[in-house]
Task: structure prediction
Amino acid sequence: MSYKIVVIGAGIVGVSTALRLQRKGCKVTLIDPKPPGMETSFGNAGLIAQGYCSANAQPGIFKKVPQMLFEKTGPLSIQWSQLPTTLPWLMKFAFEALPKRAEANGKNLHSLSRLAVDGWQDLIAGTELDRFVRTTGWLHVFETQKMFIEHKKEVAFMRSQGIDIDVLSAELVADLEPDLARCFVGGSLQNDALSLSNPHAVVSGLADLFAAAGGQIIQDRITTVVTDPSGRMCQSVKSNDRNYFADQYIITAGVWSKGLATQCGVSRTLPLIAERGYHIMLPSLEVGGFKRPVAFGERSFLLCPMTEGIRMTGQVELAKTDAKPNYVLHRHLLPLVKQFAPGIDVREQSIWMGNRPSLPDSLPVIGRSPALKNVILGFGHQHLGITLGPITARLIEQLVFNRPTEIALDPFLAQRF
Ligand SMILES: Cc1cc2nc3c(=O)[nH]c(=O)nc-3n(C[C@H](O)[C@H](O)[C@H](O)COP(=O)(O)OP(=O)(O)OC[C@H]3O[C@@H](n4cnc5c(N)ncnc54)[C@H](O)[C@@H]3O)c2cc1C
Result:
């Protein structure tokens, strides 16, 4: 059976979905006001965090919030003028931090993330894009014994979930990444995590494959979902000046999905907000250089070697998607970069802000829309969209063809809110 499909939004989730469905014989149109991969999928850290099993809302997190907020180089900031938008989300986040909720959310996240690498391999096998995929793992390093001891408990839990991760002494950290300063007491290496050396090149490369095989990419912004007289099917989706018709419609518009999803029966109170994050590109090291992303445990930022230089990335800022970026926040981290990797030239080459599409339980929405039978939703992948994009696309494909999904999707339905 071949279907005519419209995919709305060309980030990692939409592009992976369009390509998979095209390979299964569907006639797919991918619609986005921007060229593929130009929003959140552009400037992330490129980590494919196989088996990730902890939700962001954890018991005790609120005790740490004041320190997180008021430290100049802290991991979290809130644009206070926008508290009316973020407060309801924060209240739901507090609920998700209850021990039982956090445990269930972690389990559900793991049911998806344990298939992350498989999803990627499935998508890029036989293409030349695997040249951007590194298999050197993901390194975490710690400045203090207190945090290192805490982290060792997390490592034990991750191992119990089947994740391939080793605890490292200070000497082993220095052997792995000689460009790091010798101020770390230890760390861990997740061996089965992959990383992309240029996330944008991969997403746009996937879109190029789709276009080369006859897929249609249209630059347009969808505003309206038109239902048929029964009110149970989507008849078309509309932009300001065009109508697009298909058998099935997929909404993968990241943090901008809510307006369209609510037209498909999703509650207006769906708590989807932007956890904004930043990056600064720095020049590559002339000699040596990092071989893998390095996360600084106490600081919540990473240094990631990319094809165009070293990417310093991280932080969470709760603000509206259209609020002005607060680049100062991220620039405050540059002295720490110099401290942790003295060989790095910290002259900024470029700076970027992206919108992680986040729900308080750290789970994406994946499933059929509550009201319209021929609309499928795939958004809200928070800090893990690169990790989970391709496996989400595989699940969407199973829904399109009415096959049983390889994992239960109940925890991911929009109706949970
Ligand atoms: C600083 C930072 C670091 C990160 N690091 C990692 C990491 O290491 N690993 C990881 O797994 N994840 C990471 N993430 C998260 C990841 O980048 C996101 O979860 C992911 O990119 C979201 O992909 P998406 O396709 O859902 O959304 P997007 O990439 O935002 O794409 C959505 C698309 O929809 C389009 N759109 C919007 N409205 C409409 C409309 N009305 N009609 C048509 N199209 C529309 C937009 O133009 C956009 O192109 C990071 C994020 C940030 C900010």
